[in-house]
Write a structure and sequence with these properties.
The complex is a heterodimer of chains A (226) and B (316).
Chain A (H helix, E strand, L loop, with lengths): L2 H4 L13 H11 L3 E5 L5 E6 H7 L2 H6 L3 H8 L3 H4 L1 E2 L10 H11 L3 E5 L5 E6 H12 L6 E2 L2 E4 L4 H11 L4 E8 L5 E8 L5 H9 L3 E2 L16
Antiparallel strand pairs in A: 1-2, 2-3, 4-5, 6-9, 7-9, 7-10, 8-9
Chain B lengths: L3 E4 L18 H12 L7 E3 L6 H4 L5 H12 L4 E2 L1 E5 L4 H20 L5 E4 L21 H13 L4 E5 L6 H7 L5 E8 L23 E6 L5 H19 L3 E6 L16 H18 L4 E5 L5 H17 L1
Helix pairs in contact in B: 1-9, 4-5, 7-8, 8-9
The chains are: A alpha+beta (226), B alpha/beta (316).
The complex binds zinc ion.
Chain lengths: 226, 316
């Protein structure tokens, strides 16, 4: 669950002396929106985003490229002039959970991953986090999702997991979420099988309520911070 | 009145999935018994299972997959690729008979011996990927039949209409970049049901873009939604594609009594769906249509649904 396993390690970077056209071409060529700015030793000194470029260039130029005069005018503008210095970074030993919480809080699209000596090790974008989360949910593998309502007391999840395991069914994931009823939890096992009729019957017989799929919802985090 | 073929063979019951598996031999037994007691067998042209020529399997499945299946099966292993796929030593042979039966059916329709047919076969096929068995399926019967029609009979455009409640991931993937086979599937929304593919945004790739269409049904929905989606999605797609042959992946597991999924299609709903597909066949394919059994696990209703289905094929 460490960032170092989910980040992109072959980072496309740029130097602060480069022109903003060069930055734009690099982003377009690699279909990326964040360019870490590094010194000759690959130490991170800043980041430039497609938004920074957009604010620096007149719209028509950004869209259609530039004429010779316009180019000359802007040619003196370097990445160093428009980049964000000292951007928010994360270390490689941050977990995916750390990154998820931080990205929600800071509202940025990507974090450069930097070691304790300031060297750039990778970049982690919202895209990479989503890929990691799809893995966590297990939905890249074929399966069926159930939703079971349980009392919020010790041992419930074990009973459910045991019942499913007895049926020889493997788990893609298990999510537990709050429900609209106080004292209740919703358990979402993602089962790697087509064959769910029997386990559904069994869980009902054990006294669990299988929630109508149209009523499912996954609670969000408390919306305290802005 | 149509000349309707009926593929059935007792040997399709030899594929033994063990006790308590929903994809059981009893499924075919009840279908066959119901067709008989409804007096339909006298009206149908019987088709017997034949073993498929392996070259037609190679049109879809790579040789290494077929070999692997044979080895795992003959070694006495009780499952293949996933625990869902329970099997016995006869499974490999039965799977060949299933494919061969559908090919024989296609051959006889192309020879103008009949207009359409229902294939009551096991194991089912639409979850089978080119090189992976999934969801009780080993060989993709319908996909192989589509390739057979193209390669042996020069059919240019085949439409596969998949009305099983689950998405036919295998069929979609096999043809997703191929504009000569249109894959249409109506199924329970993949966030709620196996196998989790068949999303709205999956519409084919490369040259096949626009030749895959998925209609999603939310849990609890039934006849009305099917009518709306089929009219809105399937009919215009067929108008654009103009198929020369229609293959139906026919699953009865969208029925309200079937607890493998959460869809509430009624008996009348199934009749409406099949009649609509038959009208498409009359319109585009000189009525040529083969319906191939996929899922459907409620033994109490399966036979009745099959009787209705065959009546629609006969009456057009
Ligand atoms: Zn099915």
């Amino acid at each position: 669950m460490f960032v170092s396993r989910s980040m992109v390690s072959q980072v496309i970077t740029i130097t602060k002396e480069a022109s903003i056209f060069e930055a734009k071409e690099k982003m377009d060529a690699h279909a990326i929106r964040h360019l870490p700015v590094v010194d000759p030793d690959n130490r991170l000194i800043g980041i430039v985003t497609d938004r920074d470029l957009r604010s620096a260039m007149p719209y028509a130029m950004f869209k259609n490229g530039a004429t010779a005069e316009e180019r000359e005018q802007l040619a003196r503008l370097t990445v160093g002039d428009i980049m964000t210095s000292n951007p928010m970074t994360i270390p490689p030993d941050y977990t995916i959970q750390d990154a998820l919480l931080l990205i929600q809080k800071k509202r940025v699209g990507a974090f450069p991953v930097v070691d304790s000596n300031g060297y750039l090790k990778g970049i982690l974008s919202v895209r990479d986090l989503l890929r990691a989360f799809i893995n966590v949910l297990g939905i890249h593998e074929p399966g069926t999702l159930l939703c079971i309502e349980v009392e919020e007391k010790v041992g419930q999840l074990k009973k459910i997991v045991d019942a499913i395991t007895e049926e020889n069914i493997s788990f893609g994931s298990v999510l537990v979420a709050r429900t609209w009823d106080k004292g209740k939890r919703a358990v979402f096992p993602y089962l790697l099988t087509n064959n769910v009729a029997r386990i559904k019957k069994k869980l009902s017989a054990m006294g669990y309520r299988l929630i109508d799929p149209m009523e499912w919802y996954i609670d969000t985090l408390p919306k305290t911070e802005k | 009145m149509k000349r309707t073929g009926y593929l059935y063979d007792d040997r399709y019951q030899d594929h033994d999935t063990g006790s308590e598996h929903p994809e059981s031999a009893d499924r075919l037994a009840t279908i066959h018994a119901n067709l008989r007691s409804a007096g339909l067998l006298d009206w149908l042209i019987p088709i017997r299972a034949t073993r498929a020529d392996i070259r037609w399997l190679h049109a879809v499945h790579p040789p290494h997959y077929i070999r692997r299946f044979e080895e795992v099966c003959l070694s006495g292993n009780s499952c293949f690729d996933f625990p869902d796929n329970q099997m016995c030593v006869s499974t490999y042979d039965t799977a060949f008979l299933a494919v061969g039966g559908v090919i024989e059916t296609a051959r006889r329709i192309m020879a103008d011996e009949m207009d359409n047919a229902f294939c009551a076969i096991r194991p089912p096929g639409h979850h089978a990927e080119a090189d992976l068995a999934m969801g009780f399926c080993y060989f993709n019967n319908v996909a192989i039949a589509a390739r057979y029609l193209q390669q042996a009979h020069g059919i240019q455009r085949v439409a596969i209409i998949d009305i099983d409640v689950h998405h036919g991931n295998g069929t979609q993937h096999i043809f997703e970049d191929d504009p000569t086979v249109f894959y249409y599937s109506i199924h329970e929304h993949p966030s709620f049901s196996f196998p989790g593919s068949g999303r709205d945004f999956e519409r084919g790739t490369g040259p096949g873009e626009g030749f895959t269409k998925n209609s999603l049904v939310l849990p609890g929905q039934g006849d009305d939604t099917y009518k709306t989606l089929i009219q809105q999605d399937l009919l215009p797609a067929m108008e654009m594609f103009k198929p020369e042959f229609i293959l139906v992946s026919c699953g009865f597991d969208a029925h309200e009594a079937d607890d493998m999924a959460d869809i509430e299609l009624s008996r009348d709903g199934y009749i409406w769906v099949m009649k609509t597909i038959l009208q498409l066949a009359d319109q585009y394919t000189h009525s040529r249509i083969i319906s191939v059994l996929e899922g459907g696990y409620c033994l109490e209703w399966l036979g009745k649904l099959a009787v209705d289905h065959v009546r629609v094929l006969l009456e057009g």
